[in-house]
Each structure stands twice: as C-alpha cells, then as structure tokens.
Amino acid sequence: MSSSRITDDQITDLISKLQTLLPESHIQSGSRVSSARVLQEICNYIRSLQREVGDLSERISEFLSTADMSSAEAAIIRNLLM
C-alpha cells in the first residue's frame, strides 16, 4: 500500500470540511448526509458562485464603460480591481 493513498477517514474528514463551506441553506452543518450529496451541493454552489462572479464582472464592465473615468466611484472600482 502506497503512503500517498488517502484513507476512508481522511475522505470523511475532507467531506466534512467541504460541508462546512456550504451556506446553511444548502445542507445544515452537522446534519448527516451522504458524501455524494455534499459533493453535489459543493459543485452546485461553485457553479452559482461562478455565475455571480460573471454577473458582477459584467456589471462592473458596463459601469466602467459608461462612467466618467475621473469620477470618485470609477477610481474606487479601479483601485479595488488592482
């Protein structure tokens, strides 16, 4: 057996850690659910975060394309993005 092999206990621990990263609306923290369900919810959550990032990126791009680039708001956004 290789020393790099992940044990069942390690997998269980990693699944528990992933479950704690989910918002409470997805799976209640501490509740007993299958590893497959936790992984499925993590994937769904990551996809929703990617959509949210895309939406925010579009909104920022639209704002910057129409904003007075010398405005205080545009300067703040530029600083945040760097």
TrEMBL record:
BHLH domain sequence ranges: 1-49
GO biological process: regulation of DNA-templated transcription; regulation of growth
Top-rank lineage group of the source organism: Eukaryota
InterPro entries (UniProt xref): bHLH_dom, HLH_DNA-bd_sf, PRE
Keyword tRNA processing among UniProt keywords: no
Keywords: Growth regulation, Transcription, Transcription regulation
SUPFAM superfamilies: HLH, helix-loop-helix DNA-binding domain
GO MF: protein dimerization activity
Family: Belongs to the bHLH protein family.
UniProt-recorded name of the protein: BHLH domain-containing protein
